[in-house]
Design brief:
10-stranded mixed sheet; binds adenosine-5'-diphosphate; alpha+beta; 4 domains; globular; 725 residues; binds magnesium ion; 13% strand; Ubiquitin-like (UB roll)
Length: 725
């Protein structure tokens, strides 16, 4: 019983990091950075010049891989990997579970003479066949064709993953079915980048900026997480299996003091962070910032932004590394969106922009009037996109765990709106009135699109309540969950942007009619038009307020989908299917399969949690409380035996709570007997019927925690888990 808790606390107290201390003086971060990556530098050294050039072109232009060089590249890669101690290679892929998947194969092949040699062919590099029948495919892959295959993603470099006992060569891959349908998170992201480039180039043409340097999307994901001592987790089946606490009374001190945020980082945590960074440096992940977050025990790590595809793979590595390194320091890293009730959850702000090396960010206002006009066009495209496809954006961040965050006043609300900041909002307001030539905004700024002065954007103006906020040269999408792949939201953003840019280019084509001297007027008119149609999505106020929720839905017609079962059906709505099929990002079948997989995941998650609630309430909470009950009863009997009165209010109260918990747990169990063939129905049932009953069990259990003797309580408390570091 409570002995387990005491052991945990003792272990926390006695914890000493066993690792050899890091020494960044001897091991310079600049030397470490990318040392385990088959980088441009390594390729240049190890590949024949012509092969290097061909490969480089493939990577930069996103062209089809020339199979004739595969053999040479594979060999060079293997030799490099073996020189770094690799014995195995793996095709790393990203199935729809949101996790990272890998299957390892050895390089060793018998040489026919009783020995063995290390071998790796071009074929093995380019294509793998994991036994993937256990990954979700949503009906895309019937079991007789169970072998989806993995295909090398040439645009991201291979790398080596270290383990104290050896290393593995990791090859980033896309995962598709034999019929070419996407079974993963990467394939649609690559497709959406293509669509984005095509349409962005069409718009750039009007500004004389079109080129064959691809326009890409960029992402800088700020990753939040919790750290909890592992001893506590081992005593909490809910944390182990569900990643969140299903029980737990609030700690006397929560986060209301806000003294944790940006406070000094505890030494054990700092050691952990440094080792995480060291590991990530080696993998070429440009991690940059670390700090405490709002909640006690909560922290953040953020890299410098990169191309979406690379940033997405890197974010997966960040999540994996956080979890692995935490264990070395006796802690568990919780990536769940809401590990503790009543305490801020974890999100992942995805900073999103589009552009390329020569153009910079197309969401950057720039210094010249010409650049400003271009900026306003791309910005308007984003506004239009979020207005048109807000529900889609909402659906990309829908999960059982993220539901605990969105809409609880700590994360952005589930209503998708755009924050522009006062200044930019003012400019769009003027554009709406039609500043064909020029008009005045706030003394200084003239906003005629042909005479735009530099727009000094104030990036310091922050509104934390907006799900999609302009922050100077990018938008920050704040509704993404800490545990999610960032691929899905970016696939949606790229496709939505492509559609808006397509619309803009088409409209400008019609208006300009090959005579660019019309351009200013055409742009003005188009911007005016877009603002008029889509201004409903622009909101600079407090996203948490009741008034906004009312106004958004009733006056502005914005959707407020609070739960996953409300949001996921959007994936197969007509608008969304039209959008994705038009730009070849998803087929209808792919969308249907995704929707059913995500719904299934939702159902399974809640099912697991519900079963845990029943089990824990019966086997961990009930026994402790009953022991206390009998202690109280015994005391009462003793008192009476010596002729004293015994009015045991606390005994009656305890007994009531125990009965309440037992009854609710039995009812919850009965509810789980329900089943339906329709996965959406099932998801709604989980959401509307099962979840509330789980909360009812919890409310009795948490009340018991407040009265049962501390030494009889089995579960580590919120106070212990959050504050012992
Ligand atoms: P804050 O917490 O103030 O929002 P952080 O420094 O934690 O800011 O994170 C900001 C993230 O935005 C970083 O990952 C950064 O690299 C990224 N970022 C900066 N400029 C761009 C851009 N143009 N496009 C995409 N991401 C960007
Ligand atoms: Mg931040």
């Amino acid at each position: 019983g409570s002995q387990a808790r005491l052991n945990a606390i003792t272990a926390v107290n006695n914890f000493r990091a066993t690792e050899k201390p890091l020494n960044f003086m001897e091991e310079k971060p600049t030397d470490l950075f990318g040392c385990n990556v088959f980088s441009d530098k390594v390729m240049k050294e190890r590949l024949p010049k012509n092969v290097y050039k061909t490969l480089k072109r493939t990577m930069d232009k996103g062209e089809q891989m020339d199979p004739s060089i595969a053999e040479t590249v594979a060999n060079a890669m293997k030799d490099w990997a073996v020189s770094k101690g690799a014995t195995h290679y793996t095709h790393v892929f990203y199935p729809l579970t949101g996790m990272t998947a890998e299957k390892h194969d050895g390089f060793l092949t018998p040489d026919g003479k009783g020995g063995a040699i290390a071998e790796f062919s071009g074929k093995l590099l380019i294509q793998g066949e994991p036994d993937a029948s256990s990954f979700p495919s949503g009906g895309l892959r019937s079991t007789f064709e169970a072998r989806g295959y993995t295909a090398w993603d040439v645009t991201n470099p291979a790398y080596i993953r270290e383990n104290p006992n050896g290393t593995t060569l990791c090859i980033p891959t896309a995962f598709v079915s034999w019929t070419g349908e996407a079974l993963d998170k990467k394939t649609p992201l690559l497709r959406s980048q293509q669509a984005l480039n095509t349409q962005a180039q069409r718009v750039l043409k009007f500004f004389g900026k079109a080129s064959d340097e691809r326009v890409q999307s960029y992402a800088g994901p700020e990753q939040e997480y919790f750290l909890v001592d592992r001893n506590f987790v081992l005593n909490r089946p809910d944390l182990q299996l569900a990643g969140r606490t299903l029980f737990g009374a609030p700690s006397a001190k929560g986060q209301e003091m806000e003294d944790h945020y940006f406070g000094a980082i505890p030494p054990r945590v700092l050691s952990f962070m440094m080792e995480v960074e060291r590991e990530l440096y080696k993998l070429g992940v440009p991690v940059k910032t670390r700090h405490n977050e709002v909640a006690p025990g909560q922290f953040e790590i953020a890299p410098i932004y990169e191309n979406s595809n690379l940033a997405t793979d890197h974010n997966q590595m960040v999540m994996t590394t956080l979890k692995e390194v935490a264990l070395r320091y006796g802690m568990v890293c919780l990536l769940h969106e809401k590990p503790f009730a009543g305490i801020n959850g974890s999100g992942k702000h995805v900073n999103y922009s589009i552009g390329n090396a020569s153009l910079g960010s197309l969401f950057d206002p720039g210094d010249t009037p010409h650049e400003n006009m271009q900026f306003l066009v791309f910005c308007a495209a984003a506004i239009r996109a979020v207005h048109k496809y807000g529900p889609l954006l909402r659906a990309t961040v829908a999960s059982a765990s993220n539901d605990h965050r969105l809409g609880a006043n700590e994360a952005p609300p589930a209503i998708m709106s755009v924050y522009l900041g006062e200044q930019l909002a003012d400019i769009f307001e003027q554009l709406k009135k039609g500043c064909a030539k020029s008009c005045k905004v706030k003394d200084e700024l003239r906003v005629g699109v042909d005479t735009l002065p530099p727009l000094p954007m104030d990036a310091g103006d922050r509104n934390r309540t907006s799900p999609f906020a302009f922050t100077g040269n990018r938008f920050e999408f704040r509704a993404v969950g800490s545990n999610m792949s960032i691929a899905g939201p970016q696939v949606a953003l790229n496709s939505m942007m492509a559609e808006s840019l397509d619309y803009i280019a088409t409209e400008l084509d019609k208006c300009v009619k090959a005579d660019l001297s019309n351009l200013n007027e055409c742009v003005s008119k188009l911007l005016q038009d877009i603002v008029k149609k889509h201004e409903a999505v622009i909101f600079n106020g407090d996203g948490y307020s009741e008034a906004w929720h009312k106004e958004a839905v009733e006056k502005r017609g914005l959707a407020n989908m609070r739960t996953t079962p409300e949001a996921l059906p959007v994936l197969t709505s007509k608008e969304v299917v039209d959008l994705f099929t038009k730009y070849n990002v998803f087929s209808k079948r792919e969308l249907e399969s995704r929707q059913s997989i995500y719904l299934e995941q939702y159902v399974k998650t809640i099912m697991t949690e519900a079963q845990l609630v029943i089990k824990m309430s019966r086997t961990m909470i009930f026994p402790g409380a009953v022991r206390y009950q009998s202690q109280l009863a015994e005391t009462c009997a003793n008192l009476r035996a010596i002729g004293k009165d015994c009015v045991m209010v606390s005994l009656d109260d305890l007994t009531d709570k125990l009965r309440g918990m037992q009854k609710a747990a039995n009812e919850l169990e009965a509810l789980l007997g329900h089943s339906s063939d329709d996965v959406l129905e099932e998801a709604k049932y989980m959401c509307n019927t099962v979840l509330p009953k789980m909360l009812e069990v919890r409310s009795f259990a948490d009340a018991l925690e407040g009265v049962v003797a501390d030494d009889l309580w089995n579960l580590p408390s919120y106070q212990e888990m959050l504050f012992i570091k």
